[in-house]
């Protein structure tokens, strides 16, 4: 298998190969600055190896040659290909680490500054899923951790020796192999693209702390085509592939129930362990290992190992430098990060419309940042829940604002000080919970609603506020800026942890799933399942529907596992011991802090036990 | 890492003669007739699971040893020695430096391709005994020309990789060039070096 690594023993005498010259022997070329290699042109995959993988697709159950950890293995073993029939998965694009391996033709071209002829970028267009990559060659930095992730990621390149070396970050979750073998949104990719005449080789090195124990090295061969072969487009619109399916169904296999790994083993007459062993399957000793492997060893890998759960290995996307960072989402809508919870600000002819106010610890700096975006006082604040990371800054932001729509209105005769300060809007249960918990009055919303929808037209945006019953709490809302096409999800969705389902304050598993689906019912992707409607999580990086879909899938899959165990009479301790989140722990898990994996599992269990039969 | 079944030539551009030869594969016969190294010849040796040890034999000669099948290849930068007709044939090496002829010549047009640096080790091998591209008898002939490029890369975790890109042109058994790329990870010592004899099984 071409992705398998053999081992090379190199002595120092060989180091002059390529650019690594140290003690150059007589035949070695002189060391000089690197030239630019022209990669422009039309390239087709040379599928003289891995034809199945680069064509019809690998066998489901064949994960050999990948250094997958337990989470990666279990994620793959839980994957049901029928998931692709779900509306929000039908147009999934390919992530760059797979795109370069996928079937279809490629076009490379350069973008040069017309005045200096300096190379600004190299573009790659992949026929399948219209994968469009840009490799920036102008030395620009990578964006911050809170910037959106895309299928193709953010790439920068340099020429080193005879290779174009490319670094890619900000990838979406996708797959390393088209059989469910996952690649996480925490993966980075380094590539070495070399050209020998009309033969191109792209060596990809994928580092993924969530699903891999060591870098995944693969190489893909391409040959140059003399002319354009056309057919570059890949139009995709989703539709109903299965009529009448429940909206909260996500095809998945319980741990140990996926049949394909065993089918693969039987079909090719190889031990079950060969396809699921992870890193050992990369190295030359592996065939000898298989000779002594037992069935029990392999069977044990089909389920979570007993013992404590690992914790998240994801990068914390939130800044903690005591400053407020502003990231533009679309025209006049901004994301503010740094005060312990994401804040959104919409500006225009009227006063700023703010969604959530953070923890309040940096409220003065939040106000300062908003004033840089608008010279008008804050007019409205919407709280997506009563939780402290949504409402902590209410008192100061409110005091710094003003609501001119109330000053001089009928209300000014009813309420002293009407319009003095920003108006805080929230679903009624936000106020109820604050009253119950005796939170300071300055934090309360003064304009509440009971129905499922509140609307405002402000700063040129139609703004809709939808109540999401019994999701994280019983007072959650999402806010949709329709013209800007931005949805603020609050803590219903985040990219940093398992959902904080607050059972005592009215949250529930089903309500959380329904809320995530409600968000998805309002999104429109721009292209191949990404872009378009942008989603602001309560915590984490700016997202689009793809991240919400993966989060929804996770929530449904964990629910299904816990529900099945409850049905079979399992206790909470048994459910915890079964590690029902094992394939997601390295992405979202925590063993300490305010929201641990155990607390999440307990919330799911409790919620399902409370649910009406 | 496992030997594919007989006749499995997936992705290999065999011509009818090549397919016929592949179907005639008889590992028992190879073993008994002393031809058990057919799968360890120059056309397949870098694809065998195992380790490679590369050293300078002298200023103009590189030696690549393989523990799989206990094979040795010799890359000559100068005039090659030997007559070939063995599993590894005669390999001529040179440094393949990127750039155009303009970068090396002086046409008064400037450094069109940029200054030179680095490059791959290019090795062209001929005059080998016929062998197998894959251990299940997918053939190459003694008339094949095998061109390889060796490129080295450093990756973020500190590992050093060697990429071997191979192009096999065979007028007897292939209808088109056969391309593969194979990677190796550098080891700091000889851990795992385990010379083993060729096996046709």
Structure keywords:
heterodimer, A: 613 residues, alpha+beta, nine-stranded mixed barrel, seven-stranded mixed sheet, 22% helix, 23% strand, globular, disordered N terminus, B: 201 residues, mainly beta, eight-stranded mixed sheet, two-stranded antiparallel ribbon, 3 helices, 10 strands, 9% helix, 35% strand
Topology readout:
The complex is a heterodimer of chains A (613) and B (201).
Chain A lengths: L4 E6 L30 E5 L24 H9 L17 H4 L6 E7 L6 E8 L4 E6 L17 E7 L2 E7 L4 E4 L3 E3 L4 E9 L2 E9 L8 E10 L34 H8 L5 H4 L9 H7 L2 H6 L24 E6 L2 E5 L5 E4 L6 E3 L7 H11 L6 E3 L5 H4 L2 H6 L10 H5 L8 E5 H9 L10 E3 L3 E6 L2 E8 L7 E6 L4 E5 L18 H12 L13 E4 L5 E2 H23 L4 H6 L7 H4 L8 H14 L3
Parallel strand pairs in A: 5-6, 16-17, 17-18, 18-19, 23-24
Antiparallel strand pairs in A: 2-3, 2-12, 3-4, 4-5, 6-7, 7-10, 8-9, 10-11, 11-12, 13-14, 14-15, 15-16, 20-21, 21-22, 22-23, 24-25
Helix pairs in contact in A: 12-13, 13-16
Chain B lengths: L15 H8 L3 H6 L18 E8 L2 E6 L4 E6 L13 E7 L4 H4 L15 E7 L4 E4 L3 E3 L4 E10 L5 E10 L8 E10 L14
Parallel strand pairs in B: 3-4
Antiparallel strand pairs in B: 1-2, 2-3, 4-5, 5-8, 6-7, 8-9, 9-10
Structure notes:
Chain A has 613 residues and is an alpha+beta fold. Chain A has 16 helices and 25 strands. In chain A, strands 2-3-4-5-6-7-10-11-12 form a nine-stranded mixed beta barrel. A seven-stranded mixed beta sheet of chain A has the order 13-14-15-16-17-18-19. A six-stranded mixed beta sheet of chain A has the order 20-21-22-23-24-25. In chain A, strand 8 and strand 9 (181-183) form a beta hairpin. In chain A, helix 12 packs antiparallel against helix 13 (545-567) and helix 13 (545-567) crosses helix 16 (597-610). The longest helix of chain A has 23 residues, at 545-567. Chain B is mostly beta strands and 201 residues long. Helix content of chain B is 9%, strand content 35%. In chain B, the strands form two sheets. Chain B has an eight-stranded mixed beta sheet with strand order 1-2-3-4-5-8-9-10, with no helix packed on it. Chain B has a two-stranded antiparallel sheet with strand order 6-7. The longest helix of chain B has 8 residues, at 16-23. Chain B is globular, with a radius of gyration of 18 Å. The chains are: A alpha+beta (613), B mainly beta (201). Strand 1 (5-10) of chain A pairs parallel with strand 10 (178-187) of chain B, so a sheet runs across the interface.
